[in-house]
Specification:
Ig-like_fold; binds 2-acetamido-2-deoxy-beta-D-glucopyranose; Ig-like_dom; 30 strands; Immunoglobulin-like; single chain; mainly beta; six-stranded mixed beta sheet; rod-shaped
Length: about 350
């Protein structure tokens, strides 16, 4: 009866155990990243756990095996690069997880590019011995480090308080990359676990944006410690911050006294993002009159007056100071200005 149950569990467990390995049904499935990158001269921690058939008995002594490129160790024993029962192994790995608790977390202490390959995990739990043939783990070892990523919310506006983050992939949490950036160095720093249980190192800072941040470059560099030194990669982003009009000023050309009937140009300038719209006003006894919606307002100087412009964008409005238009020989206006 027991045998029947075992056969049933072998053949009727859904999906995960349906594969075969060297003509034997696979009795294990592992949860680990399918593909993982590592840096030569550094370490790699592989988060790993496994599920097995009921024959797995956590009271028994359990060994873990890692194979490289292939699983057929009977025809090629050299595929076995690590066996936890051996004191000397081809690769100096360390299974740091507790295998009896189905934790196969493994540390590769020092990789080089020749480690780039497919790896297979095997568990040996008394007579229950099975290889996770259907779950190869692809390791890719690179010589150059990963550029960190800088995260800034989109659509930045002045007065907003935003969190800027620089994060770097951290395959070796025991010696994480050191992050530095052009923002303050006392930023919040941490190495945290991701959803796939791999690690990320971060620095984070809250900044209150102003117009001076527009065009500001944030450079973040990640320095990875490796055997005998370090490797560094850098990322730069330029902030784009919207702001209300600033330094709005009105000017008149020609300046000073002009003769009646001559052509005069009033010009408005302002710094704003997005670029502002302009409106020109003329002061009169009945209040300000809207005279133009151009940046440069040209007019035939028939009478004197006072003008100012207003710059406007989605974020706000700014009014310039007033500029006088003085007509040569216009005693009344001169009188007004002087007294
Ligand atoms: C890897 O395995 C394949 C077969 O699965 C074999 O053809 C190839 O020679 C192996 N590569 C190395 C480097 O052993
Ligand atoms: C393996 O890792 C464990 C836990 O981190 C540590 O105590 C042990 O010394 C390591 N073994 C080797 C051979 O590095
Ligand atoms: C597996 O073992 C690793 C290393 O000891 C540990 O950090 C991790 O928390 C364990 N995972 C689980 C699910 O217990
Ligand atoms: C890479 O590591 C393996 C195993 O630790 C070692 O045998 C080999 O010499 C190393 N290769 C280089 C280029 O350092
Ligand atoms: C930054 O702002 C976020 C959200 O507003 C807040 O949760 C966090 O504590 C702040 N961090 C620092 C370092 O002030
Ligand atoms: C920011 O970086 C860009 C591109 O590298 C460069 O053209 C620009 O001059 C830099 N701006 C500042 C303020 O340094
Ligand atoms: C622009 O206005 C700011 C205040 O808003 C002032 O500090 C700065 O000197 C002005 N710049 C110029 C070029 O006038
Ligand atoms: C400006 O006004 C004067 C007087 O009315 C006229 O003679 C002259 O042609 C005008 N000039 C322009 C450019 O409109
Ligand atoms: C100024 O006048 C123009 C044209 O008559 C009009 O489109 C605009 O809305 C006015 N602007 C203001 C601020 O009154």
């Amino acid at each position: 009866m027991l045998t029947v149950n075992m056969l049933l569990s072998v053949f009727f467990l859904p999906g995960v155990f349906a594969d075969y390995c060297q003509n034997k049904p696979v009795g294990i499935s592992i949860t680990a990243p399918k593909e993982i990158e590592a840096l030569s001269g550094s370490c790699l921690e592989i988060p790993c756990s496994f599920k097995t058939l009921r024959q797995f008995d956590s009271r028994r002594h359990t060994n873990g095996v890692w194979m490289k490129n292939d699983t057929d160790f009977s025809s090629d024993p050299s595929v076995v690069i690590f066996h936890s029962s051996r004191s000397v192994n081809k690769y100096p790995l360390n299974i740091t997880g507790n295998l009896r608790e189905r934790n196969c977390t493994t540390l590769f202490p020092d990789l080089n590019t020749s480690y780039t390959d497919k790896y297979f995990f095997r568990v040996e739990n008394g007579p229950f011995r099975t290889t996770a043939c259907a779950d190869p783990l692809q390791i890719k070892v690179k010589d150059s480090p990963w550029s960190p990523s800088i995260n800034v919310p989109s659509d930045l506006k002045e007065h907003q308080s935003v969190t800027v983050t620089c994060s770097a992939f951290t395959p070796c949490p025991h010696s994480p990359p050191q992050l530095t950036w052009t923002l303050q160095q006392d930023s919040l720093r941490q190495t945290e676990k991701n959803t796939e249980r791999t690690f990320t190192t971060k620095i984070q800072e809250n900044i209150t944006l102003s117009d001076t941040h527009d065009g500001y470059n944030i450079t973040c560099s990640a320095r990875y410690p490796v055997i005998g030194g370090s490797k560094t990669a850098e990322t730069e982003v330029t902030l784009s911050v919207s702001y209300a009009p600033r330094n709005t000023s009105a000017s008149i050309s020609p300046s000073g006294l002009v003769s009646a009937g001559s052509w005069v140009e009033l010009s408005c300038s302002s710094r704003a993002k997005p670029p502002p719209r302009f409106t020109w006003f003329r002061n009169s006894k009945d209040g300000a009159i809207n005279v133009s919606v151009e940046k440069v307002y040209g007019l035939n100087a028939t009478e004197g007056g006072e003008f100012y412009c207003v710059a406007t964008n989605d974020l706000g409005t700014e009014t310039s100071s007033e500029v006088p238009l003085e007509i040569n020989g216009d005693q009344n206006l001169l009188f007004d200005i002087l007294f």
